[in-house]
Here is the input.
Amino acid sequence: MEDNDEKPTISTEFIADKNAIIKTSILSSLGTVLVVLAIFALWAQNPLKDIQTNKLTINTYDSQIKEIKESISVSRGELEKQVRKYIETNYGELSERDEKVDKLVIYFRQQDARLSNIEEALTKF
Here is the structure.
């Protein structure tokens, strides 16, 4: 009966080793989670910076396009004024004047078409 009275005992060294292994596992898991979160945070910030930079660039281009459109509008008005002034000061008789005015009108339309093409190209840009 003596054999039955003996109970197997777990040594304190085994328990201490088991606790140390558990602590080490928990710490390494937490370290891994922290490293993964840090990498994710760095990775997520790059696209946000790129998006903000692109928005600023687009705003700059939009303002430049508006300025160019305004200058083109002014150019059209100035060209028309100059053509009218030139016709009034440089051409004499009505029949001769009509012929030369027609040529100038054609020239003006060509210039207007070119400016329109530039505007279209800028709006696509």
In short: The chain has a mean pLDDT of 78. The radius of gyration is 42 Å. The chain is about 90% helix and 0% strand.
